[in-house]
């Protein structure tokens, strides 16, 4: 191995750690029973955070809202984006650049501005025409998000349209198709992959949007806004559990898509370009995207079921006990230290609340058989913050 | 086929097409007969594609009328006209199979799937490509795509088939083969073919009649041999085939022939286009390279052989005569014959009927 290979390998390792490190760490924390998302110290393997996630009513309600809003945005933003892209492709070049700027502008405007202006505008409209039902979180969020999400869709369509041969439409017309038929039978099938990716992108953009939605959603909440407010009150590993779910779904989608693309490529190319997998009927069936998808779903389903059956309460109880013991030991140690100090200083600084005074002075290092301090059961951070626990004031 | 032969003629009645201030087609006035193989020949930018789009309905004439089968086509869209257009790059639909491509015109007319397939198979039979119906256009060779495009256009059962340089993307051998094939298909279906090309070889070999266009103007319409042998303008003479041009001054005209005084001497030649000249008029004399004969006595002059280009059957000889360089095509007589060497003096001449005197006008090299 020469120096270049070592350097290259190290660089690649650093690069991929940078990319995937956070994801891996986060995924691991979802299975640690610690109440704070962390990997070390590892306490117990648990699947309870998934249950906790699904038990969070606010998050689940937000998820439902996000799905409704996301579908609404996709249903409107994709046709608007397609119409915009088609208009741009038909216009003379001077008008085109002007319209392009206008249509792209919402992407450049800060989301906060879009959010506020949406509620101001629709507030005026709904009051003006007396249509109060328009002023609700779902509708406002959909129209607010569409202003910029449809521009994303349009960019996807423009890219695809640039590869469209306009004479195809002319040929269809010449062969007797009406403009509508030419659109449905020629242009739409050509645009189908772009429509798929535009729908996906707009759904994601709608789903993950925060800064516009936080205004337009009014008293409702979407998944993202609910998540944000949850994080504000302190985070816990149920969010990591959510990350695991999202990563898993993405992986399933990506692998199925890859299988689909490879198969399409193999079928488009000649026999020579195909991998030997296609010769054998069994491996051929196994590489079918549908089969790949089914296998992945079955595996994930199995793991999920196994996980749901897993009971970590015993381990957790043991950990809790361990923590309590440790906490107690630390307290006793501290108390001993305080008493030793007092003993040293004699009666000049009497401690009114310490009945044991300097009785145990000088034996601070050994664990004294002190009465058990009052233990609060919900103090999960006890172990973690034990070293900086405030002076004890009990008794 | 219906009992009566349908009228498949196209009449261009004083058609002018302008884009803003630019005139793409200037006052085209022309009748294309039913069942004719008609070509528009011209360099790129001469307005021939504009003309084709106007006949197929993608654009409307600014002035004048287009009549197909005697009916005025004003306001009739391309999908309503009895025409089918074969695009320069064919415009086959890549996402459909060959059979779906061919049956597309039937699909949009609501013909059942079974019948569509039957018709597609019939047409594939006709273009001698049976059994490729389930392939995608991307899997076909250039010549196959070509024939599929023709089959698709014929599925419309058009009265007029318009072809926009469809052979330009093919290699030479295939192009020559497709010429014969196109001509055979045209004879078989009896449809009027209107063919657009900048390749004079294609226009001359396939067509019943040719219209030569330049700068939006139809310069001459006629049978291929008349276009070649009796050009009516300097542009036609210089664009169709090779030609030698000599500038001179008319000394006098007597009926069909006139005498032209040039720096190389005075020549007797036929007057092109039945025009009348008076002494002192500026004019151009055109003589074909293959009609300049070494040792001929009529219109004889001396020249010096400057260089030669050997091209198998013919030998292109370039001879200097004063300021002019003349091109002479000599048939390769093989080892039995002999050719003059570099720098040798040549005595050349041509029959008066083979020279054409035309008024000074723009030449092919100037477009």
UniProtKB/TrEMBL annotation, chain A:
GO CC aspect terms: plasma membrane
TM region positions: 12-31, 67-88, 100-125, 137-159, 186-207, 239-260, 281-306
Q: Where is the signal peptide?
A: none
Topological type in the membrane: Multi-pass membrane protein
For this protein, the record's InterPro entries field holds:
Bact_Polyamine_Transport (IPR051789), MetI-like (IPR000515), MetI-like_sf (IPR035906)
**Assigned protein family:** Belongs to the binding-protein-dependent transport system permease family. CysTW subfamily.
Descriptive protein name: Spermidine/putrescine transport system permease protein
What are the record keywords, sorted?
A: Cell membrane, Membrane, Transmembrane, Transmembrane helix, Transport
* Localization, UniProt: Cell membrane
Q: Where is this region: Disordered?
A: 341-395
> What region holds the ABC transmembrane type-1 domain?
63-257
Q: Which PANTHER family match?
A: PUTRESCINE TRANSPORT SYSTEM PERMEASE PROTEIN POTI (PTHR43848)
Chief site of localization = membrane
Could you tell me which SUPFAM superfamilies the record lists for this protein? MetI-like
Q: Which GO terms describe its biological process?
A: transmembrane transport
From TrEMBL, chain B:
Q: Which UniProt keywords apply?
A: ATP-binding, Nucleotide-binding, Transport
Q: Does the keyword GTP-binding apply?
A: no
- Looking at the UniProt record for this protein, which Gene Ontology cellular component terms does it annotate, in alphabetical order? ATP-binding cassette (ABC) transporter complex
Q: Which GO terms describe its biological process?
A: quaternary ammonium group transport
A Pfam family that this protein carries is ABC_tran
* Signal peptide annotation: none
**Gene3D superfamilies named in the record:** 2.40.50.100, P-loop containing nucleotide triphosphate hydrolases (3.40.50.300)
Annotated protein name in UniProt: Spermidine/putrescine transport system ATP-binding protein
């Amino acid at each position: 191995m020469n120096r270049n290979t070592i350097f290259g390998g190290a660089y690649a390792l650093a690069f991929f750690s940078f990319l995937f490190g956070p994801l891996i760490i986060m995924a691991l924390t979802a299975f640690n029973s610690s109440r704070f998302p962390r990997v070390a110290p590892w306490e117990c393997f648990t699947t309870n955070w998934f249950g906790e996630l699904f038990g969070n009513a606010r998050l689940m309600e937000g998820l439902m809202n996000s799905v409704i809003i996301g579908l609404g945005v996709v249903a409107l933003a994709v046709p608007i984006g397609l119409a915009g892209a088609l208009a741009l492709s038909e216009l003379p070049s001077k008008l085109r650049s002007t319209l392009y700027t206008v249509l792209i502008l919402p992407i450049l405007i800060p989301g906060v501005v879009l959010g506020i202006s949406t509620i101001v505008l629709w507030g005026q409209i709904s009051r003006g025409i007396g249509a109060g039902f328009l002023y609700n979180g779902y509708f406002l969020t959909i129209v607010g998000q569409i202003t910029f999400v449809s521009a994303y869709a349009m960019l996807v369509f423009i890219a695809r349209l640039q590869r469209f041969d306009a004479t195809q439409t002319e040929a269809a017309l010449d062969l007797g198709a009406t403009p509508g038929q030419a659109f449905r039978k020629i242009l739409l099938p050509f645009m189908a992959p772009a429509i798929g990716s535009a729908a996906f992108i707009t759904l994601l953009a709608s789903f993950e949007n925060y800064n516009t939605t936080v205004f337009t959603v009014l008293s409702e909440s979407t998944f993202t806004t609910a998540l944000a407010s949850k994080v504000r009150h302190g985070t816990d590993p149920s969010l990591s559990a959510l990350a695991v779910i999202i990563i898993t779904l993405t992986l399933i989608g990506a692998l199925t898509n890859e299988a689909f693309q490879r198969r399409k490529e193999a079928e488009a190319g000649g026999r020579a370009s195909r991998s030997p997998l296609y010769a054998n009927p069994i491996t051929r069936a196994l590489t079918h995207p549908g089969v790949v998808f089914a296998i992945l779903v079955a595996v994930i389903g199995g793991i999920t079921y196994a996980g749901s059956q897993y009971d970590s309460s015993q381990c957790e109880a043991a950990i809790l006990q361990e923590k309590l013991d440790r906490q107690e030991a630390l307290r006793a140690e501290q108390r001993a230290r305080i008493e030793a100090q007092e003993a040293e200083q004699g009666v000049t600084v009497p401690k009114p609340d310490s009945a044991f005074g300097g009785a145990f002075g000088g034996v601070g290092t050994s664990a004294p058989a002190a009465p058990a301090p009052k233990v609060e059961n919900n103090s999960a951070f006890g172990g973690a913050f034990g070293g900086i626990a405030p002076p004890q004031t009990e008794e | 086929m219906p009992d009566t032969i349908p009228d498949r003629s196209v009449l261009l009645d004083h058609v002018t097409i302008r884009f803003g201030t630019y005139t793409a087609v200037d006052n085209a006035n022309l009748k294309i007969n039913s069942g004719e193989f008609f070509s528009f020949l011209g360099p790129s930018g001469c307005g021939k594609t504009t003309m084709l789009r106007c006949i197929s309905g993608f654009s409307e004439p600014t002035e004048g009328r287009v009549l197909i089968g005697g009916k005025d086509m004003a306001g009739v869209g391309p999908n309503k006209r009895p025409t089918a257009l074969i695009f320069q790059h064919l415009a086959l639909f890549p996402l459909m199979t060959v059979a779906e491509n061919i049956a597309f015109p039937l699909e949009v007319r609501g013909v059942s799937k079974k019948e569509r397939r039957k018709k597609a198979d019939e047409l594939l039979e006709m273009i001698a490509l049976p059994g490729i119906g389930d392939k995608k256009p991307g899997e076909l060779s250039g010549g196959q795509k070509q024939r599929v495009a023709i089959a698709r256009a014929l599925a419309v059962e058009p009265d007029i088939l318009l072809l926009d340089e469809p052979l330009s993307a093919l290699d030479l051998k295939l192009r020559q083969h497709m010429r014969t094939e196109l001509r055979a298909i045209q004879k078989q279906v009896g449809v009027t073919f209107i063919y657009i090309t900048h390749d004079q070889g294609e226009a001359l070999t396939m067509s019943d009649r040719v219209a030569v266009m330049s700068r939006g103007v139809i310069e001459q319409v006629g049978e291929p041999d008349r276009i070649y042998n009796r050009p009516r303008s300097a542009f036609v003479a210089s664009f169709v085939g090779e030609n030698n041009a000599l500038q001179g001054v008319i000394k006098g005209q007597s009926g069909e022939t006139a005498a032209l005084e040039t720096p190389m001497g005075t020549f007797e030649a036929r007057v092109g286009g039945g025009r009348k000249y008076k002494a002192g008029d500026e004019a151009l004399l055109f003589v074909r390279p293959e009609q300049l004969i070494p040792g001929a006595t009529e219109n004889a002059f001396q020249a010096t052989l400057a260089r030669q280009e050997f091209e198998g059957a013919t030998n292109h000889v370039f001879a200097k005569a004063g300021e002019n360089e003349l091109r002479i095509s000599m048939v390769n007589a093989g080892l039995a014959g002999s050719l003059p060497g570099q720098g040798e003096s040549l005595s050349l001449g041509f029959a008066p009927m083979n020279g054409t005197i035309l008024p000074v006008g723009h030449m092919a090299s100037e477009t």
